[in-house]
Amino acid sequence: MFILNIKRIIKTGFTNFWRNGMVSVSSIMMMTVTLFFIISLLLCSVLFSLTLDRVKDEIDINVYAMTTATPEDVLKLKQDLEFLPEVDNIEYISREQALSNFRDRHRNDEQTLQALDELEENPLGSVLNIKAKEIGQYAGIAKFLESKTVLTDGEDIGVIDKVNYSQNKATIDGLSRIIDAINKFGVALAIILIVVSVFITFSTIRLAIFISREEIKVMRLVGANNSYIRGPFIFEGAMYGVISAFLATVLFYPVLFWLNPSMENLFLMDVLSYYSSHILMFFAVSLLVGIIFGVISSALAVRKYLKI
Question: So what's the pLDDT on residue 283?
Fold first, then answer.
């Protein structure tokens, strides 16, 4: 009996869907637009996250040691820093490697290299390249470094010559604000889209119920229970979600093809290729959201306007 009722509900849902052609098309169009923007929001969120991750990889703190500091002193400082919970990774660059890197960066500057060759000894100290786990944690690491010294033979010997946190602080703070703003904007826009989608689907389902009001009265007179009356409309709402998710995912491709050159400059990656390789993920998300919106909207409309 249960299986038979399910079959009847699905059959009635299909019948209502095709019979209410214009209503169904209007509802699908509205939900397609909503899911289209949700896919856009999701894609932009992922792309911003990937871009910010790349930028964050370029952010660090460089600790320049004094030329008088021994490798043991610098390695002791490195060891102390590794105990900080904020530190993710520390790269030790010896004086020799620092000089080699400097020469490589200025290989086309003959005047600088000539001046460097005239020096009797290496003018550069060791360097510690520090990366934090989160971008907001660099301030704590910098504070730890402010007065850090290494104890050698019972005396406090200064090891740190310069820390470049102050030069990078503006970039770090700016990037932190961008991350926070994107997260807040994404949540706010998602909430707005959800409300709009539910309202639109709710209105179209209400219209479908109004069109079927005489049929519903007959179903009640013959003793149909609330679940049987409600079922076709909920299934119809789910159909709106499935079709809209497919259309939104497919239609997003040509739009992205047109916008891809501009988006490549913004995100520094082939956005169209990324979407193509993850299209099943975007379809799955839009399908899930579409079905949920359709079912919830239908349930609300049935509950409010059928008084069951």
Answer: 92
